[in-house]
Each structure stands twice: as structure tokens, then as C-alpha cells.
Write a structure and sequence with these properties.
Length: 295
């Protein structure tokens, strides 16, 4: 082979090497380029997903915050339930006027008129079935500052004392009736009075069970430690006043049982004399709001 041939061959080999080298660089650049663009794509998807998840979490946090800030119906604490249980223990002379079985047009309205005139606040243990008949009377009592408490729905012993849970059912039904009547869905009656009282009688064991169920649901129950005897068939207003005096009997903290059902006309007629007597004896008129608001 002459020198020219050798030089040509050498040049060809050099070209092949250079070409191969460039090709390798191109392939390498192509692979790297693909890899980088894939990484960028993945990174972008990850960032988008992360942004969506963050947005959802933020929205959920805001919803939880709104939910937490929403006003809620007042629920009694254990301490407040105990205050109601200890209502008869007090240093000062105080009286809670309570009216059961209403509302009625014939008796509740004159009672409200009188209390309004004397600037006295009282407590009404309403029946859900009656609240549905006369919602405007309950609304008035509530707006005039009286405590609207709960006496169940039916007042039929065979119904309310059918089971311990039926007491809670009647409480809830009445609670809703009161909310509808007063136009405040956040109101809770919170305090229950057993029809016929919480102790004794044929349903005693069931009432004890019901008391526990009520407490588990943050509901207090209360009876009375004085009365005017308006459910005892007394014939005259004087007899009612005397029955009251006899049961008040110098106690410091009294919860007086009275009724504002439609047939209890003597109750509102004797009320001015009862109020006068209690004032003379130095009692201050209170509602359950006062007890629950105590610090
Ligand atoms: Zn009753």
C-alpha cells in the first residue's frame, strides 16, 4: 500500500471515530433530555397534586372553624345540673314560682299579665302538646323573661312512662315545640319536671332510670318543696293561700308548684295574695336562669 492509500484509510477511520463520537453524544443528550423532561413533568404533576390537597385541607379547616364558631344550644354542665339538684340549699330567702301543664289562654295569660305588672319573673313547665296549640303564649312568656322549662309532651302516664327512653323522647319533642314557638332553634329547655313528680307511685323505678338517662343527656330534673294545692281539689282561694303558707313553712329556698292549665282559675286569682305574702316574708323572686348564670 502506498503512502496515499494509508493516509486515506487513516482519514476514514478518523471520520468514523468522530462520527461515532458525535452520534454517542447525540444519543446521550437525547436520553438525558428525555429523563430531565420526564422529571420536570413528574415534578409538575406532584406540585399540582400537592396544591389540590393543600386547597382541600384548607377548605376543610375553614369549614371546621365555621362549625366551631357557630352558636350552639346551651347544654348543662355537670356542675350546673348539681346546682339545680341543690336548689333547696341557700343562705338567702328566694322563691321560684313554677307553673305546670300550660300554656292555656284562660290561665296563663292572666298570670303573665300579673307577673308583668309586678315585674316578677317565673318558670313555666310547659307541655309540648299545649305549646303546639298556643305557641304565641310561650313566645310571650319567653320574651318577657320567664324561664321555659319542660314537662314532657303528653302528660299521659301510660304514654310518657311506657319506658325510660320515652321520657327522653317526650322531652325532646317538647323541646322542639318550644324552639318552634319562640322562633329560636338554639334554645334548650334543659330542666325537666316529671308529670306527677319524680318520686313514688307505680312508675318509681322507671322514673329513676329515666333520671339517669336525662342526666346522661345533660338534662336536669326538679320537683318542688312547696305548693298551693291547686291540684288537690281545694275549694277556695283562701284554702290555696293557706296550703301555700303551710308548705313554705319558713324554708329559705322554695320552689312552688302551681298549675296554669285552663281549669286552674283559682291559681291566677290567688296569685296576688301569694306574691304579697312571699314579699312580706322577705323572699326574692328567681328563675332558673339566675341559678344557671351564677358564677
Ligand atoms: Zn303536670
Amino acid at each position: 500500500m502506498d503512502l496515499i492509500c494509508i493516509k486515506r484509510k487513516y482519514r476514514n477511520i478518523r471520520r468514523i471515530i468522530i462520527f461515532s463520537f458525535i452520534l454517542i453524544i447525540f444519543i446521550y443528550a437525547f436520553i438525558i433530555g428525555n429523563y430531565v423532561s420526564e422529571r420536570i413533568k413528574r415534578q409538575k404533576i406532584f406540585e399540582e397534586d400537592f396544591a389540590i390537597i393543600s386547597k382541600i385541607m384548607k377548605e376543610q379547616e375553614e369549614l371546621a372553624k365555621i362549625e366551631a364558631e357557630k352558636p350552639k344550644p346551651k347544654i348543662l354542665t355537670e356542675e350546673e345540673i348539681n346546682r339545680i339538684k341543690n336548689i333547696y340549699k341557700a343562705e338567702e330567702k328566694r322563691v321560684f314560682l313554677t307553673f305546670d301543664d300550660g300554656p292555656s289562654q284562660k290561665v296563663t295569660i292572666p298570670i303573665l299579665d300579673f307577673l308583668n305588672q309586678e315585674n316578677i319573673k317565673a318558670n313555666f313547665f310547659v307541655l309540648g302538646s299545649r305549646v303546639e296549640l298556643y305557641p304565641e303564649i310561650v313566645k310571650r312568656a319567653y320574651e318577657e323573661g320567664h324561664y321555659i322549662a319542660n314537662h314532657g309532651y303528653s302528660h299521659k302516664y301510660s304514654q310518657i312512662y311506657m319506658s325510660s327512653s320515652s321520657v327522653l323522647d317526650e322531652y325532646s319533642k317538647t323541646n322542639q315545640a318550644v324552639r318552634n314557638a319562640i322562633g329560636n332553634q338554639l334554645y334548650n329547655t334543659n330542666i325537666f319536671r316529671f308529670p306527677g313528680g319524680s318520686i313514688g307511685g307505680k312508675y318509681n323505678d322507671l322514673k329513676n332510670e329515666a333520671k339517669c338517662i336525662l342526666e346522661q343527656n345533660n338534662i336536669a330534673s326538679i320537683d318542688w318543696n312547696a305548693l298551693n294545692g291547686d291540684a288537690e281539689g281545694l275549694k277556695t282561694e283562701e284554702a290555696l293561700l293557706n296550703r301555700l303558707k303551710e308548705t313554705v313553712n319558713n324554708k329559705n329556698s322554695i320552689v312552688i308548684l302551681m298549675h296554669d292549665a285552663a281549669d286552674k282559675t283559682k291559681t291566677y286569682k290567688v296569685l296576688p295574695q301569694i306574691v304579697q305574702y312571699l314579699r312580706q316574708e322577705g323572699y326574692e323572686f328567681k328563675t332558673f336562669y339566675d341559678i344557671l348564670d351564677e358564677q
